[in-house]
Amino acid sequence: xxxxxxxxxxxxxxxxxxxxxxxxxxxxxxxxxxxxxxxxxxxxxxxxxxxxxxxxxxxxxxxxxxxxxxxxxxxxxxxxxxxxxxxxxxxxxxxxxxxxxxxxxxxxxxxxxxx
Amino acid sequence: xxxxxxxxxxxxxxxxxxxxxxxxxxxxxxxxxxxxxxxxxxxxxxxxxxxxxxxxxxxxxxxxxxxxxxxxxxxxxxxxxxxxxxxxxxxxxxxxxxxxxxxxxxxxxxxxx
Lengths: 115, 113
Fold this sequence. Notes:
By secondary structure, chain A is mainly β. Chain A has strands at about 5, 10-15, 20-25, 30-35, 45-50, 55, 65-70, 75-80, 85-95, 105, 110-115. The radius of gyration of chain A is 13 Å and the shape is globular.
């Protein structure tokens, strides 16, 4: 069982579609993350939210729009994606103290295919 | 920014043998070094981590060593089993960055019978 839940598990979308990925955790973590992982590559950080505020944006194109409605939820809104955006999108969460790092807990990911 | 190099990219060992994966990092301010195991089609899962105030940490068949001076850390798996077959990622981060991890490129470990 994973403590970070992502939906949907799979998503196929056209380049003109608008869709959203959802992530939920109930571990009381105050830091949440979006990572993108291409096949046979390590996860690449996209966004970090700390206490529901966007703290890191790794120069991600604006066609990806994150949202953190509350401390348990994280969304990634997708619009006008390109085929090269096809990847596994991983959500993660962790404690955040600002002075010490904590392990990331990953969800099972959403496998996105852009056609 | 931080750069993490990981070797080897693939590793094949016989069941019962030991496996060692090595990583180097570039930012001397990094102080947290986790290792993740990712099975095919699954999420990365933390298997062990170490902080810069510790030189070695063990958890059953898994151990991690850290050499801050040389800026490298290693994962050691003893008595390997077929279920250890997976991709292993090392990572590094520094305090105050909400666990902003920089991952190594990964090592595909194959444990053969």
